[in-house]
Amino acid sequence: MANIFPRGSNFLPLKIAFCLLVLGGATSTGLWYYFTNKYTNVGYQPTQPVPFSHEIHVKQVGMDCRYCHSFVEVAAHSNIPTTQVCMNCHQQIQKDNPKLQAVRDSWTTGQPIQWVQIHKTPDYVYFNHSAHVNRGVSCVSCHGKVNEMAEVYHAKPLSMSWCLDCHRNPEEALRPLNQITNLDWEPKTKEGQSVADAQRELGSKLKADWAINPPDKNCFGCHR
Amino acid sequence: MSKRVFHHPQDSASGKKYWRSVGQLSNTPEFRVWLEREFPQGASEFDGGDVSRRNFLQLMGASMALAGLSFAGCRRPEKHLVPFTRGVEWSIPGKALFFASAMPSRSGALPLVVTTHDGRPTKVDGNPLHSLSKGAAGVFAQASILDLYDPDRSRRFLSGGEPSSSAQFEKALDGIIASLGDGSSLALLLEPGDSPTRERLRAEIVAKFPKAMWATYDPIASPAGDIFQSGVQPVPVISAADVIMSLDCDFLGSDVAGDQARQFAARRKPEAQAGMNRLYVVENRFTLTGGMADHRLRVQASRVGAFATAIARQVADSTGDAVLAQMLQGVSIDPVEFPADWVREAAADLIANRGRSLVIAGHRQPVAVQGLVAGINSALGNLGKTLVGKPAQSAPSAGIADVAKAAGEGRLKTLILIGGNPAYDAPSDLGWAKLQKDFREEKGGVVIRLSSQEDETSRLATWHAPLAHYLESWSDARAFDGSYLSVQPMILPLFGGWSEIDVLAKLAGRQKPEGPELVQETFRSTVKPSDFTEAWGKFLHDGFVSKSKSQQTSLSLSPSISGVVSAGLNAVRSTGFEVVVVADSKVLDGRYANNGWLQELPDPVTKVSWDNTAQISPASAKQLGVSNGDMLRVEASGRSLEIPAFITPGHADNSLTVALGYGRDFDGRVGGKGVGFNAYPLLTSSAPYFLVGASVSPSGRKHKLVVTQEHGALEGRGGDILREGTIEQFKAQPDFAKNLGLDAHAEWIEKDGRKTEVVNRSLYSHPPLDDPHQWGMAVDLTACTGCSACMVACQAENNIPIVGKEQVGYGREMHWIRTDRYFASEHDEVADPEMIYQPMLCQHCENAPCETVCPVNATVHSEDGLNVMAYNRCIGTRYCANNCPFKVRRFNFFDYNQRQIEDGGLYKWNLTSPKGTPETIKLQKNPNVTVRMRGVMEKCTFCVQRIQEAKIATKVARRGTGNVKIEADAFTVACAQACPSDAITFGDISNEKSSVSKLRAAERGYRLLEYLNVGARVWYLARIRNPNPRMPDAQKAGSHSRPSHHGGGHETAKPNHSGGNA
Q: In this predicted complex, what is the ipTM?
């Protein structure tokens, strides 16, 4: 009986093994790269031109987010404060601090400060801050506890599936409107109730009261 | 069970047919290709340029290797957020600001609202506060924003062709002004305008240089003549007229002034309180007005006077009006060629509606014809009723011929040209280009030119200075109704240009203004406000001074007019072929030649884009033996022109219509050299409109024209998707439109005995439509004139790229909304059909055929009834486009936004070749809409960005409540906003208070392909015409021949028929 398999097939297992190796390598590289926080930039903490500490300003001094990010409630974009806003206080306070030299330079020369962007959604995503902070979503939900950050870093993935987690279960994030910029807020718990349960209970009520219905299937909610 | 097959109602062999082109009527192979394929054969092939598929792959490989060398692309680049140093008043980053302004135009400035994003103007719309615009802005206002960002705009000052600077220009100007003396050697040539500040500066200049010549020139203006008492301009009141006769006047199209289109449309609707108006049109070529006509007669432009005489005789006989009789005395015209019963009945209709009728003559018809028409109106008692007067705003000026004469005689030393382009568009008998050259070189004259482009005239000038765009300069203006408008800059001059006022101020011996001070001075002296700051603030905020409309004055015929008429009418004789020279519907007199949106916009009637043509009737074309694109040689009074013929049904025989504005000779990448043919050589001072006795012959050459009339042809379903009827038909059966074709057999849900919609049976499960808002649109075909403002508005709003002539030829134009132009006639008649428009856009079908075929769910339905596109999911299979029954999907075959579209640039790229949009064009883009890249499908989104903005704004405003429903009619989409005749309405159909839900329930409403149950979200309102039953062609007008019933959809399948609901 003639050989069914040609001679070349002796190497077939080797070839298959090699291909599997390459495929496996590519898969693990892909997973390592694309499925980790690194890809989604969690932990990204660039050096800013001014070592601005949110911890000092918010936690210690007690400033509200909206003192500097003044348009967050009216615009899609949450603005970075102008040099003028910094100088409102720093003309009086810490006016010789060398760390603030860049701010003073900007004020005298008129050249703006080049802050390094940390949180960024892709160009085809139309995120709107005002739509969130006016409907019970706190800054902390997407930016983490900025009030405890000496230097701001990328705390949450900001990936599409992460967005959808909340858009599908908004009750996990909703809170009273006067607590939006209180990043340490926690819902009141009843006897023996976990914080998560209390949040869900309050969130569900707010969701119903405010007719919260975030786009979870509609592409155009975020992509136009 | 037999297979259920729908046979689409084909247009029946007898009865009325709706067709797009002569090619469709004769069913040419070329037409079949457009019909059967979404894109023509080869449209998806890579065959256009000099890169074959094979060496494309090679290039790709090489590029990939190069790209692989650097890993810069692996991590996202570091980006910066750069706030202002000091806060800017009103500016909120990312939010649009709206400013009122006005755009100067031929018929009076247009009140506008300009949208600016972070300091860049991005969109122009009408000023909703002003009664003339009510938020609508036409084609040119919409497109003017692109002119601002035209990368080919002049960016430099030139002195004798050498680069110079603004400071040097100012210095030179000072020197010249110092040497002017009494101004006897100075002439200024400007475009006509009625800015009060300009008029004030003019008075100052005249006071300073009493002998200076102030001249204006507009190549497409009306011939001068005193028809009424002096200092008064006639204004037709379209809304007051029950019967309108337009004699070669395109008052709904190119001759539109003020809100005439809206006035007409409001009286056109059969539901109108005051009753439906009736329109007679006599013209040589199809115009938008002709398309709206109830009765249309095609007549040579040179015979319009003869036609008017025939009407006038009957009116004079019947009314016994002495003035009219005097005008007709000695007029020896024999209007034998006009159908006697047509003339008799039309005149009888006018006479029967005395005081409620209106006859309008085209503004470029000779003064004699204008005068005669004024006489007819006077005899009919229309003066003061349907024709009123308004004071002429600007003082009379000299003309271009006076300047040419003075320059030729050596009386001038300094010539200042602001705007315009006389070297290109002056009457050819003046020989302006040579005159200007000689003036400068031989007579030692100085020519100072302000222009937005370094064009034909600038090249021959001593000094060229860039002219600031109206969105870059302070000014003021008068609207058509005389109201006083503010013009404010949205942005500093991008290229350091000077405005008209800047130069005039220098001439008047002032400093070049830095801000609004000159306009403020005018405002102060004109309005005399008690509180200047507040009044000025309101002026800028509103964009106009309220109650500043000019008072209507009575009209009386000028006593000398009857002599002018009787002498003039006999002079207008037609012998043989006539050539009619008209302004182009897109580039006008040539000023918009470098505007890509306008160049790519198909002409509303011919549907030719990127070219001008000589329109010719089918019979004359046959006589000459030419077909579309064959070059014609036109010779008249020693001047000649070669231009491609284009056969246009409904055109008068022995007549040729040639559009001006093309064949420019300047370095513009859009409309520069080689685009179209320059028809100005045919324009002379004595014959500014039509030339009689021209010789026309085929030259034997051919020119490739790109025509979109057959693109998007819908399976010969013209007769089904377009529905029209007469007013009698409508009154007898208000819902006749729902009973045509197969819709008559569909299973309808009835409410109060009236059909509402068909029963929704679908094989597919659909996500529930449970959003509190349900978006929908209504398009009133009775009001739509086909002006195409919607197309340009959509392009501006939605970042739609232009693709270039070659790509349009492949059917790859990207317009999300198109105005389908159909001709309608019985018995395959092509000579004299009717014309009907249908705006066609994504119908947002509830059972959308495109959604079910997308393999990657890139096009899906939303809860609020939108058919949405997720560009990032799209992999470009184009199945959706193939499955779309309306052919409204557009595919990005190339990276039109990133690659150069001219000179085959689309085909010459690889991964390493430079790419990118010119910086200035980027500034125009709407930041709320994705700029799509190559390989993705796109289509109308119902302006989803506006929907989202409205939703978010409502949610923000009602924070802490559950009431998130947007108020009825709180916003609208770009096309509906732009529509000058209010034909398009958009809104929430689930809100009973919204205008669209009222229109949706209108009796003459119907949806496309209702019997296929696609569930369109666009309701069309059938077109109603109001023919005069006594007219000989009354049977023709508007009567919809009902397609025969084709078995009612219960036949067994036939293999040769495309099955619908299988």
A: 0.89
